[in-house]
């Protein structure tokens, strides 16, 4: 029997007869020879079919096949230096699985973004999307490897929650039987804090939701986030862990998906520079720098996308901005003992204008301080009683962070908009398909 081989593995089978199961990406046909562009989910290859090698009626059917029809081809793998994968297939057998009756809606011509998003279920088949999702897969794989190699435990945190982790103004609420209102999780952090008191070093990876009416190229309503939490970690320990993680992700993606990045037009040399340690600046110094550059911003204002771009554009690797004012940060962040007006937190800004990819802090571990902060933020103490309990029984200093998967994908791939960084984007005006 002819072995079924993936396109990505064809180079190891030069001179052998193989079987490819896939789809017709494109074709160029003539009277005596047809060039079939094929894909199978692992890569892309050209198949050359000569009329003399198969039944005349079947050759006629192949010539009439519409784009994205499914087929199985068999033939001999031949070296081809012009091919991006170094080979092509000399086809001697074709089995048509499904011949499309209508034209494939996404042709080689230019389409508007609304059209492509409306046909996202089909757009995923395109070559560009193939490369993006391959990189995304390698990013998530690297994240998991990094933690498991360091003896972190995976903790699956809940999607439904009664405790708000960030701002109440951007939550999705819903009725939960007779319990009352619950929220779609903005973060799994609070639950990871409970888990790190049991397991020491923990991480999660899952969907999170923000009901923000934002239409920027950096925002999604539903996105995936990886979070980590470590008992006995200080703010400094936390920043070092973030640096190590981001370096590991970037270097592993270069190692495993360099050809995909090149296909996307990414400048690999810029990514190769992403190695720890990363440059750091305090929020206070960042404000001074922005003011010197003529920006109308004062201490206590949050940094906007333009400000982040200005700060990070001076670097060839991510920039860590630390110690923000406590009034613009979440209730759970530990005050700086040297300056109680700021908290021991940091944001990591990706270079080249991609903005914040990591948000982090040392957590408040003293019960009285936490209760006071909950009151300052006007959050209901009773809803956080379980979280307060963590400070009642064996509390220790601890720290953690969250890294946005899609923002990381967008940065590493060099995408103009975050909607391409996730298979099915949920934006302010889109939940279809």
TrEMBL record:
Could you tell me where this protein is found in the cell? Cytoplasm
In terms of PANTHER family, this protein maps to:
ASPARAGINE--TRNA LIGASE, MITOCHONDRIAL-RELATED (PTHR22594:SF34), ASPARTYL/LYSYL-TRNA SYNTHETASE (PTHR22594)
- Full protein name: Asparagine--tRNA ligase
Molecular function (GO) terms listed? asparagine-tRNA ligase activity; ATP binding; nucleic acid binding
Query: GO terms for biological process?
Result: asparaginyl-tRNA aminoacylation
Under the subunit heading, UniProt states: Homodimer.
The EC designation for this entry is 6.1.1.22
Q: Which family does it belong to?
A: Belongs to the class-II aminoacyl-tRNA synthetase family.
> What keywords were assigned to this record?
Aminoacyl-tRNA synthetase, ATP-binding, Cytoplasm, Ligase, Nucleotide-binding, Protein biosynthesis
